[in-house]
Specification:
Distance between the termini: 74 Å
Cofactor: heme
InterPro entries: CYP11_CYP27_families, Cyt_P450, Cyt_P450_CS, Cyt_P450_E_grp-I, Cyt_P450_sf
Main location: membrane
Number of domains: 1
CATH topology: Cytochrome p450
Bound molecules: protoporphyrin IX containing FE
Shape: globular
Low-confidence stretches: 1-23, 25-64
Strand order of the largest sheet: 1-2-7-4
Radius of gyration: 24 Å
GO molecular function: all-trans retinal 3,4-desaturase activity; all-trans retinoic acid 3,4-desaturase activity; all-trans retinol 3,4-desaturase activity; all-trans-retinol binding; heme binding; iron ion binding; monooxygenase activity; retinoic acid binding
Largest sheet: 4 strands, mixed
Number of strands: 11
Family: Belongs to the cytochrome P450 family.
Structural class: alpha+beta
Length: 542
């Protein structure tokens, strides 16, 4: 017992790496009763969630419980995965495959991709267990190709690609600056100026069409809005994305970004193709490097410019004022290389994610005119007609927040997320050894009827809290992740989304254009529209 207690005290971390699986299972079984429920922070039975249902304890604390191993776990064979992904274009249907596999194999299943084994978790309670058990520096995925590029060019890592202590240090700097709504509320005015330009751009684009209302492929427009918005915060300057003539440097950057995403499969292969094959198949790696070169170059130009402006101001004895970048440059909490890497990776993470969410949200509004009217009513009643909203106003507009949450529930930009577990773990009755790659199936849990009654319906009001005791932390839908490694840009994204949507709904009635056929989601790295979404923006009377 003393032995067990000392293990329990040291947590699961101390399970010796050199032990056989059976030895580790033995100790975990013994720990099961005494400590595992604490170590894994299993949610208490009866914990209430937003949908009013209970999180069931998924690891029954029962003496007779036998832990199963990965060998016992169901899942598709390597052959069927190969057919699914390479023959049936599974890369663009990863979200659908999640649903199919959940139905066929249950809440937890394994898949093999060549030598790589992935354990998929497709259940709200199990996802909660995994994320609540995370250590101080969780690892998302294997970032070898990102790391190789950075080593080759002598570049630092940003938050997305960093691990361990490096990541922890940078995360603790950024967390204090942008993780709370009130931290980002100071960017309201800057974002609102970008929203002004978005509204003007809608008017310019629709005026070019014969009906004076249609904007074709709204994602192009929202991509430019998201890039301009996030750059106004990260670089503290405007890029001119929403102007008629987009400046050449900005166009070059957009080209690099598109190369990174449009050749998603190619860049994925860049990581998957062994190094010795590169002389024979050089293109994926070359494209991967050249798009990173473009992204870094663009960030460096803007960071250096701000650095030189600050230096000049200091030399003139002027007070230096500014936002996030100014803070990082002045306090030197990060090295200049770390600043380059972080703004580069944040810009990369912050553009498509936000623009796809805006495309889906406006598409949903157009398809549900009654809901659009309810939201318009809430905005008008709360703000008065035509008032430009600020970040503070958003807390008074639960339906706008519900609109964003519901959009991200139905279309989680990251349909799945990854973790490489750093300690042996027991989840769903299985022993999963340290180092295993987990896939958290957010798309599938978001569409689970048990988690969200009427799961396929668009119901922003389901997120409106009835009173303060109404819990909203539903692990069924966590589009920004959860915990210490969750999205650091969440508050920035929400600010951009809320302010843009309020203004668009205030000014326009958004309708589906007759030339739009039903648009479904496809996976292209992120969950994105499979066809252009064309919408009509009709002036409202008020
Ligand atoms: C709708 C918009 C967005 C969504 C849905 C989203 C979602 C996510 C998700 C799911 C993760 C992984 C979390 C995890 O592993 O637990 C993530 C990570 C991250 N996101 Fe976002 N994101 C959005 C916008 C942004 C924006 C605007 C920025 C930057 C300004 C940003 C910067 C990042 C960074 C740097 C990380 C890595 C954090 C880390 O590893 O510490 N994201 N995001």
């Amino acid at each position: 017992m003393a032995l067990l207690n000392s293990f329990a005290a040291a947590g699961l971390k101390n399970l010796q790496a050199g032990w056989t699986i059976n030895q580790r299972i033995f100790v975990l079984r013994a720990l099961h009763k005494s400590a595992a429920s604490e170590a894994l922070e299993i949610p208490a039975t009866g914990e209430e969630t937003m949908s009013g249902r209970l999180i069931e304890p998924t690891m029954p604390v029962d003496e007779k419980t036998e832990l199963k191993t990965l060998n016992d776990m169901p899942g598709p064979s390597t052959l069927s995965n190969l057919v699914e992904f390479f023959w049936r274009d599974g890369f663009s249907r990863i979200h659908e495959i999640q649903l199919e596999h959940r139905k066929k194999y249950g809440k937890i299943f394994k898949s093999r991709f060549g030598p790589q084994l992935v354990v998929s978790i497709a259940d709200r309670g199990l996802v909660a267990e995994v994320l609540r058990a995370e250590g101080v520096a969780p690892q998302r995925a294997n970032m070898e190709s990102w790391q190789e590029y950075r080593d080759m060019r002598g570049r630092s890592n940003g938050l997305i690609s960093a691990e361990g202590e490096d990541w922890l240090n940078m995360r603790s700097v950024l967390r204090q600056l942008i993780m709370r709504p009130k931290d980002v509320a100071v960017f309201s005015d800057d974002v609102n100026k970008v929203v002004d330009d978005l509204v003007k751009r809608v008017c310019t684009l629709r005026a070019q069409e014969s009906d004076g209302a249609t904007v074709f492929n709204v994602n192009d427009l929202f991509f430019k809005y998201a890039m301009e918005g996030v750059a106004s915060i990260l670089y503290e300057c405007r890029l001119g994305c929403l102007e008629n003539n987009v400046p050449q440097k900005t166009q070059d950057y957009i080209g690099a970004l598109n190369l990174m995403f449009s050749s998603f499969k190619t860049t994925m292969y860049a990581g998957a193709i062994p190094k010795w094959l590169r002389p024979i198949i050089p293109k994926p790696w070359e494209e991967f490097c050249s798009s990173w070169d473009g992204l870094f170059k663009f960030s460096m130009i803007h960071v250096d410019k701000r650095f030189n402006d600050i230096k000049a101001q200091l030399e003139r004895g002027e007070e230096v004022k500014g936002g996030l970048l100014t803070h990082l440059l002045v306090t030197k909490e990060m090295s200049i290389e770390e600043i380059y890497a972080n703004v580069t990776e944040m810009l990369l993470a912050g553009v498509d994610t936000t623009s796809f969410t805006l495309s889906w949200a406006t598409y949903m509004l157009a398809q549900h005119p009654d809901i659009q009217e309810q939201i318009h009513g809430e905005i008008t009643r709360t703000l008065g007609p035509g008032t430009v909203p600020t970040a503070e106003d958003v807390s008074q507009l639960p339906l706008i927040r519900g609109l964003v949450k519901e959009t991200l529930r139905l279309f989680p930009v990251l349909p799945g997320n990854g973790r490489i577990i750093q300690d042996d773990l027991v989840v769903g009755g299985y022993f999963i050894p340290k180092g295993t790659q987990l896939a958290l199936c957010h798309y599938s849990t978001s569409l689970e009827e048990e988690n969200f009654p009427g799961a396929l319906e668009f119901q922003p009001q389901r997120w409106v809290r009835k009173d303060a005791s109404d819990r909203v932390d539903n692990f069924g839908s966590i589009p920004f992740g959860y915990g210490i490694r969750s999205c650091v840009g969440r508050r920035i994204a929400e600010l951009e989304l809320h302010l843009a949507l309020i203004r668009l709904i205030q000014k326009f009635r958004i309708e589906v254009s007759p030339v739009t056929t039903e648009v479904k989601a496809k996976t292209h790295g992120l969950l994105c529209p499979s066809a252009p979404i064309n919408l009509r923006f009709v002036d409202r009377e008020n």
